[in-house]
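Sharing a chain and its predicted structure for anyone who wants a worked example. Both blocks are below, sequence first, tokens second.
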Amino acid sequence: MKQLFGKVLLALALTLPTAAFASVSLDCSTTNICLAFASSPGSPTPFKYSWSWSYAEGPPHTGVVIPAPCENRTSCTFRCPNEDDYQLLQIGVTVRDANNQLLGTGSSTLNCSGYDG
């Protein structure tokens, strides 16, 4: 009876879903560049990164150029070539696992200029 009870408990434990802890963060502390960090132990890789941006304050007064594709990359570079100073952008990233399951999102404000970092 004791062995049967142990086997039943083991079978139940094996059928319970395991909760993976996922974390996503975004670092845009360097001018024109944002870095995404994602962690989800047990989730299938590679992770998929999807980027977005909008003007963070005031009316848009410059064009935004993304010099290289950012999709599925852990970093994204932005340029504001007609800006004498900085344009503040609100940057977002959404991260999914290889099975397209949402792991999380991150957002940050970026100083965008026409100059490199």
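Comments welcome. The first helix runs from residue 2 to 15.
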